[in-house]
Amino acid sequence: MIEDHSSGTTSAIVPPYPLPFEAIERRDGLSPEVFQERYESGMRRPVVVTDAMQEWPAWGKWGFDFFAKQYGEERVVVTNRLSGATAARRIKMGDFITYCQFPAFSPLSKNETDTPFYLTSFSPFVDHPELYGDFEDPYFLSNLYRSLEGPLGDWYKQGFGWIFIGPAGTLSPLHLDLFGTHAWLAQFHGRKRFLLFPKTDFPYVYDGRPDFINPDLKAFPDLAKTRPVLAILEPGEVIYIPEGWAHHVVSLDPSISLTFNFVDASNAVDHVMAITRDLPNWVNKTGTDSFKQANRVYWTQAEFSFPGQDDNNGKEEGSH
């Protein structure tokens, strides 16, 4: 059992994790100064904050019935996992909500997939600004991107924030978040189990190939060398995931979550370095006409070809 010090309640680990782990720290009344000193500086540590979303209009409103009623006719794409999906379907939001709550009554349940279908690409905050007005960044953190306005603000809303909706058993395989960003995730409905691995554990996680729900130590013996942080995230709680922490997430119940990636002073340099390492993908993320116009971008990809370099192998042709 994991003791929840904020409420005096306990939450069962479902399913049990058979390897050693550390229980995540749980806080309330977390000041920005303590957050920065204890969780953002140095080695960085994830934390669950139990009082960060209760003042949001979304809390108490964003439920399955709300999304079915307000956005039930919208067509969304659902997949069988957050990344590495092997199946995808386009379906009305209302029909997908039925699947989340009553899988046996949905045609989706007839599709044979290793994990249930999951709505992970729902980023509605530009088309539905009323949803963006229903919440704010958790009170204990700062977010440099949140200050963007107009088309640049829309770019951030569309590309760095999502609402995740799914039945019990949905899976986010072990992964790092994009471009050296931190992340926060707020839980509205159901519970999720997070396994979070620091960078020192990366040599022992086999590039995320093991089954982290029921790990096979005979096939992956180095898993025994890891010491992940484990969290059961309950409704009304927010988890902070620092840059550089790989995480594996499984929904224990039908679930609704909100997540945003963000950058502040503590990871701004890491963010720039990650962009440099993954520049082609970053160019794709910023390559829309609206972003270029809003940010006054005038260069083209052709300008990445420098004089004196061979287009095929990048070797210097010679000096003159």
Overview features:
globular; Jelly Rolls; 320 residues; 20% helix; 8 helices; disordered N terminus; alpha+beta; 16 strands; seven-stranded mixed β-sheet
What would your notes on this structure say?
There is one protein chain. The chain is 20% helix and 23% strand. The longest helix has 11 residues, at 150-160. The chain contains 8 helices and 16 strands. The protein has one domain: Jelly Rolls. The chain is globular.
Précis, in short:
The chain is α+β, with helices and mostly antiparallel strands and about 325 residues long.
Distance between the termini: 72 Å
Task: State Rg.
Answer: 21 Å
What order do the helices and strands follow?
EEEEHEHEEHEHHEEEEEEEEHHH
Helix content: 10-25%
Any guess at the CATH architecture? Sandwich
Largest sheet: 7 strands, mixed
Number of DSSP strand runs: 16
The structural class is alpha+beta
Report the principal-axis shape: globular
Strand order of the largest sheet: 4-5-14-11-16-9-8
Strand content: 15-25%
* CATH fold name: Jelly Rolls
Number of helices: 8
Give the helices and strands, then pairings.
Elements: E1 2-3, E2 10-11, E3 22-23, E4 25-27, H1 32-40, E5 47-49, H2 64-71, E6 75-79, E7 88-92, H3 93-101, E8 119-122, H4 129-132, H5 150-160, E9 161-166, E10 171-175, E11 182-189, E12 192-197, E13 229-233, E14 238-241, E15 246-251, E16 255-262, H6 268-277, H7 279-285, H8 289-294
Parallel strand pairs: 3-13, 4-5
Antiparallel strand pairs: 1-2, 5-14, 6-7, 8-9, 9-16, 10-15, 11-14, 11-16, 12-13, 12-15
Helix pairs in contact: 2-3
